[in-house]
Specification:
single chain, about 550 residues, alpha/beta, Rossmann fold, 2 domains, seven-stranded parallel β-sheet, binds glutamine
């Protein structure tokens, strides 16, 4: 029998519920259980693909091409698994299916209602994940905060699921904020009491309360929460702010969370941690004890919100541990790199430049300037998706001599559209889920740097784009030293580029950051970091 753990959030959003969910998953995996995770997003969007990164952070892309909330990236990283679109349930998806069924006449004349039709559809989707992947444990993280209008059908559905499977097979973990009053330093439990009360009014009794706070919960705070919220004292788990998110599983484990959950759900197996935990511990120790440091500039266009680049940051974190190097990331808004003086000043002291993906014209010239600076000063540079396209434009302008070269995304009248719309994108007029999305095979040319890095002629990486290198210019680029060392299976899509006369100038049309894992950093990122180390030490 599959066990379900429902993780809810109280008081406010942004508590790190996703990290609690991922960490618990990691702990159960380390005890030998097969774990998967579902993220419930109560918004009306069908998926996260159309969401502005300023508002919602990074859009993470799954293997099957579903565009999802960044929490699924954390589940993949902590659990070292690959999820699929079914693992993200949104209000948009649920209502769409119910409305389609209603239009198809499947409800046989019934009045279609939130209870039972929407709630049934929510639980059908949760059961589908359990049936398709046959895990020991399914973690279901409820996005939003208890009390939100839009999350109530999901909470009602999980109350019904609890009735259906019983106490031994489903438990609720409620994550809340325990604020500390600045002046007196007192930990306040009232917000937790209120959010548990709100849960109760919808018929949910939390089994465990995770108190997120600046510091550890004091024994008296735990006692108070236990008393007022009617949970045993050892089910009140302290989760203080941690400098390193990869340390959180250990913190929760020491608080007794794994033991409590295993006992409650009668999960019997294994004696203690397995190999995965040992390797995780080593990863975390190396992460926390770097022996040297370097600085990388991330030249982006959504830098106001660091969450917009979370998978890039994590990929660098994975390399930090692997190389025992403290990697300081300077988030530079590409709009600030408009002229030579600014570029010299902002990039003068960095060890490397990372240019991530993005959409639209704003900030493009600044990115081009950053590429030019790195190329001409022979500073290691890694460019991804939009970054990759921008490095092609820079090369076309300054090496091939096509002054006005551009992408037709930014200038559809350019004489030299070195980046142009993918043929499959022509005629598409809808925005949601219509890009070239998800994992595709990439063929790597032997004898190139890319081959040295990947050590294989065939790899798989995830994509999210509408534009690509215009094949008409390919030979010219290659004659002038920009080599396309990775291509799609039909050889028509350029996937990896490298500049021959440069210590490390590499770009990828795909997103290597999505597949980076703590115990297995993305090869392109690791090679980039190694190149920065080599340059610094030379
Ligand atoms: N805007 C570019 C395209 O659609 C790059 C996309 C991206 O960086 N994800 O092709």
């Amino acid at each position: 029998m599959t066990k379900f753990i429902i993780i809810t959030g109280g008081v406010l959003s942004g508590l790190g519920k996703g990290i609690v969910t991922s960490s618990l998953g990691m702990l159960l995996k380390s005890h030998g259980f097969k774990v998967t995770a579902i993220k419930v997003d109560p918004y009306l969007n069908c998926d996260a693909g159309t969401m502005n990164p300023f508002e919602h952070g990074e859009v993470f892309v799954l293997k099957d091409g579903t565009e999802v909330d960044l929490d699924l990236g954390n589940y993949e990283r902590f659990l070292n698994i690959e999820l699929c679109g079914d693992d993200n349930i949104t209000t948009g998806k649920v209502y769409r299916s119910v409305i389609e069924k209603e239009r198809a006449g499947e409800y046989l004349g019934k009045t279609v209602q939130i209870i039972p039709h929407i709630t049934d559809e929510i639980n059908r989707r949760i059961w589908k994940v359990a049936d398709d992947t046959d895990p020991d444990v399914v973690l279901v993280e409820m996005g939003g905060t208890v009390g939100d209008i839009e999350s109530s059908p999901f909470l009602e559905a999980s109350r019904q699921l609890h009735m259906e499977v019983g106490d031994d097979n489903l438990m609720f973990i409620h994550t809340t904020l325990v604020p500390v009053m600045e002046v007196v330093g007192e930990q306040k439990t009232k917000p937790t009491q209120h959010s548990v009360k709100a849960l109760r009014t919808i018929g949910i009794e939390p089994d465990v309360i995770v108190g997120r706070s600046k510091v550890e919960l004091e024994a008296s705070t735990k006692r108070k929460i236990s008393l007022f919220c009617d949970v045993p004292q050892d089910a009140v788990i302290s989760s203080p702010n941690a400098d390193n998110i990869y340390r959180v599983p250990f913190i929760l484990h020491e608080e007794g969370l794994t033991e409590y959950v295993m006992e409650k759900l009668k999960l019997e197996k294994e004696n203690g941690f397995d190999q995965y935990m040992k390797e995780w511990e080593e990863f975390t120790d190396n992460f926390e004890n770097p022996t040297s440091e370097l600085t990388v500039a991330l030249v982006g266009k959504y830098c106001e919100l660091e969450d917009a680049y979370v998978s890039h940051v994590e990929a660098l974190n994975h390399c930090r541990s692997a190389t025992r190097t403290d990697i300081n990331i300077e988030f530079l808004e590409s709009g600030d790199l408009g002229d030579k003086d600014a570029v010299d000043k902002l990039l003068g002291d960095v060890d490397g430049v990372l240019i991530p993906g993005g959409f639209g014209t704003r900030g493009i010239e600044g990115k081009i300037n950053a590429v030019n600076y790195s190329r001409t000063n022979k500073i290691p540079i890694l460019t991804i998706c939009l970054g990759f396209q921008v490095s092609v434009i820079e090369y076309a302008r300054n090496v091939l001599g096509y002054e006005n070269a551009n992408s037709s995304e930014f200038d559809h009248k350019t004489d030299h559209p070195v980046i142009d719309l993918l043929p499959m994108q022509r005629g598409i007029d809808k925005m949601g889920g219509t890009m070239r999305l998800g994992a595709e095979k990439v063929f790597v040319e032997k004898g190139t740097k890319a081959y040295e890095i990947y050590g294989s002629e065939e790899i798989q990486e995830r994509h999210r784009h509408r534009y690509e290198v215009n094949l008409e210019y390919k030979d010219e680029f290659e004659e002038k030293g920009m080599v396309f060392s990775g291509k799609s299976s039909n050889k028509k899509r350029m996937e990896i580029l490298e500049v021959v006369d440069h210590p490390f100038f590499m770009g990828s049309q795909f997103h290597p950051e999505f597949k980076s894992r703590p115990l297995k950093p993305a090869p392109l990122f690791l090679a980039f970091v190694q190149a920065m180390i080599d340059r610094r030490d030379s």
